[in-house]
């Protein structure tokens, strides 16, 4: 009897163990939400709760000094100084100058990409009472993307209503450029406020600094019934900037809705393309067949985000033949972005088509050069050497070839020499000279000399630019002759500056500097 009872108990335990193993095995078949499934699929789980950004008062970042200026930029800016005393003069202007003088100086700093005086400008920002100076300083730090005035900017957006609208607009731009995410709650508050003064700037800024939580907020905001058409358009465009795939379904539906506003559909089409989800490609290809040319243009823009996708590339190539010129332009841009070498014959054909818009032809030349195929390079070189080709077209071909430097250098230099002998072709001479001066390659030394020795002042100036860029020691005597010539005017001053000779220096100093340059 005892044996029977014991056997029964053993069977019960054994069955329980088998049941437990079955549960374990069935459970192991369920993908781990935080493990393998997340690695295999980069798209967020639609059933998972989505975090949404909220309005509120932004926490003001701690005050900070400007970042240390970039040494290379400082050196480049110093080379543009008018004299050795420029630094002292700049500092004195910042300290003692009146508002218009300071504003002009700050404009110069921005234009010259000059960061040498960030500390002085920062101190001035906190002491000035001039709105014009303050606004120009905001532009200055925006240019350098320096977060040193984030605290000021966030404070403004927390309560912008008593601040000049132009200043607030500059603050929005600054927040966008320095990617100040601390400002997000304040920006959302301004969108919620429905204040027309700040709505567009706030929306654009949120697109520049926001992420998935902000995209979820905007997607829900778009469901409001009181939105104007321009507001809805702006929302669709901003959602695309954020590239949050959480909003893909909504944007895909908008793009395909034929009853929706055209611009909303355009921006939605571009946005789902920028998200780089493979599901977007068939939708965009289908949309390309619609009659609205503006929609087709933005479809191409969306398809340009799919390198290696043959279906997308085929539609882009087709777009080069679209009847609407803006679609052709967009397709040419996409060809460059995706390096579609098989597009070269189509591009060459467009440049030859008599009915083609000049703006389209002009867009084709640099892309043909960039793609660097033998067919494309031969075509561009033929434009330079063909006597029947107009100089304006030769200039476009030269621009394209010099930029990428894959072919045609010998032919370009020969053409430059021809223009130096014919003043009727000055415009082409100037076009070539500007490109040569921008490149400064060693092989340009001889043509540089010929430009400097020209009797035409504008040609000489371009020659001096070439010399400054390329530092051709063999041409130093030509530069010296310009520096010594009392009749050379502004070119003489330019030559003396290149040689490092202060104005009003004796002729012996000119010769010494020229000898040193050699």
What does this molecule look like?
- The protein is an all-alpha fold and 518 residues long.
- 67% of the residues lie in helices and 0% in strands.
- It contains 30 helices and no strands.
Topology diagram in text:
Elements: H1 2-28, H2 36-40, H3 71-78, H4 86-96, H5 99-111, H6 118-127, H7 131-143, H8 150-158, H9 165-177, H10 184-192, H11 196-209, H12 212-221, H13 229-242, H14 248-256, H15 262-274, H16 280-288, H17 293-303, H18 310-319, H19 325-338, H20 344-352, H21 358-371, H22 374-385, H23 391-404, H24 409-420, H25 426-439, H26 445-452, H27 457-470, H28 476-484, H29 490-499, H30 507-517
Helix pairs in contact: 5-7, 6-7, 7-9, 8-9, 9-11, 10-11, 11-13, 13-15, 14-15, 15-17, 16-17, 17-19, 18-19, 19-21, 20-21, 21-23, 22-23, 23-25, 24-25, 25-27, 26-27, 27-29, 28-29, 28-30
Number of DSSP helical runs? 30
Low-pLDDT ranges: 1-48
Secondary-structure element sequence? HHHHHHHHHHHHHHHHHHHHHHHHHHHHHH
Fraction of helical residues: 55-70%
Give the tally of β-strands: 0
Beta-strand proportion:
under 5%
Ends: how far apart?
117 Å
The major sheet is characterized as: none
Average pLDDT rating: 87
Radius of gyration: 32 Å
Structural class: mainly alpha
What is the molecular shape?
flat
Task: Give a quick set of tags describing it.
518 residues, mainly alpha, flat, disordered N terminus
Write a short abstract of this structure.
By secondary structure, the protein is mainly α. Helices cover 67% and strands 0% of the residues.
């Amino acid at each position: 009897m005892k044996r029977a009872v014991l056997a029964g108990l053993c069977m019960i335990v054994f069955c329980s163990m088998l049941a437990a193993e079955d549960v374990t095995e069935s459970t192991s078949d369920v993908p781990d939400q935080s493990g393998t499934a997340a690695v295999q699929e980069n798209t967020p789980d639609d059933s998972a709760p989505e975090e949404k950004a909220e309005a509120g008062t932004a926490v003001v970042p701690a005050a900070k000094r400007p970042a240390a200026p970039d040494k290379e930029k400082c050196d480049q800016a110093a080379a543009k100084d008018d004299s050795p005393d420029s630094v002292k003069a700049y500092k004195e202007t910042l300290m003692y100058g009146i508002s218009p003088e300071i504003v002009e100086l700050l404009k110069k700093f921005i234009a010259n990409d000059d960061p040498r005086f960030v500390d002085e400008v920062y101190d001035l920002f906190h002491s000035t009472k001039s709105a014009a100076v303050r606004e120009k300083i905001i532009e200055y730090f925006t240019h350098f993307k320096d977060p040193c005035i984030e605290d000021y900017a966030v404070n403004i957006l927390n309560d912008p209503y008593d601040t000049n609208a132009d200043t607030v607009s500059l603050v929005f731009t600054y927040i966008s450029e320095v990617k100040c995410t601390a400002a997000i709650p304040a920006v959302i508050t301004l969108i919620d406020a429905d204040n027309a003064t700040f709505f567009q700037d706030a929306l654009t800024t949120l697109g520049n600094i926001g992420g998935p939580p902000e995209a979820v907020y905007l997607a829900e905001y778009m469901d409001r019934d009181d939105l104007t058409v321009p507001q809805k358009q702006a929302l669709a465009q901003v959602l695309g900037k954020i590239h949050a795939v959480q909003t893909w379904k909504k944007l895909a539906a908008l793009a395909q809705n034929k009853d929706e506003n055209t611009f909303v559909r355009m921006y939605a089409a571009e946005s789902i393309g920028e998200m780089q989800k493979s599901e977007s490609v068939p939708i965009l290809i289908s949309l390309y067949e619609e009659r609205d040319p503006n929609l087709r243009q933005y479809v191409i823009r969306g398809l340009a985000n799919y390198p290696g996708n043959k279906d997308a590339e085929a539609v882009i190539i087709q777009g080069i033949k679209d009847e609407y010129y803006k679609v052709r332009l967009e397709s040419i841009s996409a060809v460059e972005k995706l390096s579609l070498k098989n597009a070269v014959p189509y591009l060459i054909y467009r440049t030859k088509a008599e009915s083609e818009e000049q703006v389209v032809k002009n867009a084709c030349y640099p892309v043909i050069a960039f793609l660097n195929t033998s067919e494309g390079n031969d075509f561009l070189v033929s434009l330079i050497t063909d006597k029947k080709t107009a100089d304006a077209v030769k200039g476009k071909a030269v621009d394209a070839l010099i930029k990428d430097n894959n072919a045609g250098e010998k032919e370009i230099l020969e053409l430059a020499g021809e223009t130096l002998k014919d003043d009727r072709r000055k415009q082409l001479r100037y076009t070539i000279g500007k490109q040569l001066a921008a490149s400064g390659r060693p092989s340009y030394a001889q043509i540089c000399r010929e430009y400097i020795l020209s009797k035409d002042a504008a040609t000489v100036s371009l020659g001096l630019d070439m010399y400054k860029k390329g530092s051709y020691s063999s041409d130093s005597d030509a530069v010296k002759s310009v520096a010594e010539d009392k009749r050379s005017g502004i070119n003489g001053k330019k030559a003396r500056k290149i040689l490092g000779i202060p104005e009003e220096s004796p002729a012996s100093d000119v010769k010494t500097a020229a000898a040193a340059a050699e």
